[in-house]
Amino acid sequence: NRRVILKDYVEGYPQEEHMELLPATEVPLRLTSDDPPGSVLVRNLYLSCDPYMRPKMSRPVRASYTAAFVPGSVITGYGVARVVDSADPRLSPGDLVWGITGWEDYSVVKPPVTAFLSKISHGADGGVPLSYYTGILGMPGLTAYVGFHEICAPKAGETVFVSAASGAVGQLVGQFARLAGCRVVGSAGSAEKVELLKTKFGFHDAFNYKEEPDLAAALARCFPEGIDIYFENVGGAMLDAVLLNMRVHGRIAVCGLISQYNLKDGEKDAVRNLFAVIAKRLKLQGFIEPDHKHLYPKYEEWVLPYIRDGTIAYVEDVAEGLENAPKALIGLFHGRNVGKQLVRIAAD
Ligand code: NDP
């Protein structure tokens, strides 16, 4: 069993040296008497790289909604796996599952197993790639759905802006907005990504924020009448520019602030245009996906037909091999991923 551990807490941008792939050790391919009753042994197939894993690498002092990783321990995160042995009556060997596992070949998931793992009923034979359970059919998918439909409460004809728009969450928000009859514009960090937004995901317009000397002016150009809904993925200078361009009674769903995750405390961006929240009577709401798990069945039922008939596209960026997982995760913070970043560590 090979495992990737966090070596020590991270300050600033994470480097590959902050993680280590430990050489293979023998694992029994069955649960043993050391495993708590009700455990499940899984073979990990796909690992998800998600931005929230970065705050978990910091010393646990800041306000956070999830516990920090423990240096020396295996990194945990979302993944897709196959059950090898099970002491939980709801899961049998051969079942496919998605949820929280470890960055290792095999993981023992301790009870309550159903708090961590969900059985996949629409797997490879259901016409849907298994890897989608790290993305559109997993945590990022529900995040996009809840953030857009529940928090933003869109109406047809409204204008929507999405940042980090080509990523795991953003590409879906854009497509959900188009389906809801909104006019949607996205920003991303390269010409290739901007092209993808316009041609593959059906954004009405898009721009490369790295090439805009004045973000507020770029938004004014794309939204002459202003923005009704902003789906916030990045924070920092983009949030300030958006605040200046919001319409009265606009809504901002604060999903993530990736531009701030690697900055040390004194370096974080101040929000300068917060007065716009009052002047424009804006509603600004943060949310986290785990609070909305109960909506997953409704979301899955809604989105599956769109995946199957091609109405919704999903672009993935697949790294190969457990040894490449640290590099793939770090790439998120430099915009190296094109689409949802995941790692394939074993064949389906
Ligand atoms: P993505 O697939 O979008 O990958 C991250 C992208 O962020 C990069 O590709 C890069 O794209 C962009 N980025 C990186 N650094 C910066 C920066 N300094 N300024 C602007 N953009 C940057 O990730 P996800 O879709 O998985 O996540 C998007 C956001 O949603 C994150 O903030 C994440 O924390 C949040 N999130 C929140 C959840 C919740 O429950 N609230 C759940 C899931 C995600 P580019 O090339 O365009 O710069």
From TrEMBL:
GO terms for molecular function: oxidoreductase activity. Coiled coil: none annotated. SMART domains: PKS_ER. InterPro entries: ADH-like_C, ADH_N_2, ER, GroES-like_sf, MDR_fam, NAD(P)-bd_dom_sf. Keywords: Oxidoreductase. It comes from the Eukaryota. Homodimer. This is Enoyl reductase (ER) domain-containing protein. It comes from Urochloa decumbens.
